Amino acid sequence: MRTSFITINIILIILLSSVNLIAQQTVYNDARNVIFREALTLFDQHNFGSALTTFDNYMIEEQNKKSASYEDAAYYSTICTINLGTKDAVTRIHKFISDFPSSAWLPAINFELGNIYYKDKKYSLALDIYSMLNPSKLSAEQRSEFYYKKGYCQMKQSQFDNALGSYEKVMDTKSSYSKPANYYYAHIQYQKGNLNEALTGFRQLKMKESLRNMFHYI
């Protein structure tokens, strides 16, 4: 009797495992998930035009607009428009912010919005966006870009002390924004009459340029 009971349990476990496996395969091979994975692959390949079309097709097929995958598709499709420089990029950013006010993607999407305004030389609007961002939510690479661009916007708005504070957070990094941050920091110090600080900044720039040239020939 005990042997029969164990056998029945084993059969039930096998049947349940099979049903679960079939269910997982069904979900994985669902047409909508296939479209989403294809879109992600295109995005990773920087094929933003095709990725945009595929993400948009996925959102048409996906009925549950509250699902995590739908939110992700909305984010990635918006990033595609930014990379493509389409005219509706800003509109799609605002729509994403409106549709997903609690999204974990908001810091990244707002950062991109600020960068669009920065690129268009709308420094006041860019600064408004940068000022509401929490830089700790950005990647290390993004933070260097964030502080440099925020500092530049502050400088353009004659907020020179604030600009110095922003540039200081970039100057000693290894990012491509370090050198221009050093330059503008020294330039502001010169304009403020802080000649020693300005001279130190310009000397550091000269030293960095000398080191760059030296290692270029090694």
State the end-to-end CA separation.
Answer: 82 Å
- Percentage of helical residues? over 70%
Q: How much is the average pLDDT?
A: 85
CATH fold annotation of the domain at 119-218: Serine Threonine Protein Phosphatase 5, Tetratricopeptide repeat
* Tally of DSSP β-strands: 0
Q: Report Rg.
A: 26 Å
The residue ranges in which pLDDT falls below 50 over 5 or more consecutive positions are 14-29, 210-218
Q: How large a portion of the residues is in β-strands, by DSSP E?
A: under 5%
Q: Can you identify the CATH class of the domain at 119-218?
A: Mainly Alpha
Q: So, the CATH homologous superfamily of the domain at 119-218?
A: Tetratricopeptide repeat domain
Largest sheet: none
Question: What CATH architecture of the domain at 119-218 do you see?
Answer: Alpha Horseshoe
Q: In terms of structural class, how would the helical and strand content be classed?
A: mainly alpha
Helix count equals: 11
H/E element order: HHHHHHHHHHH
Shape: elongated
How is the quaternary structure best described?
A: single chain
What does this structure look like?
With 218 residues, the chain is mostly helical. Helices cover 78% and strands 0% of the residues. It has eleven helices and no strands. Helix 3 runs antiparallel to helix 4 and helix 8 runs parallel beside helix 10. It is elongated.
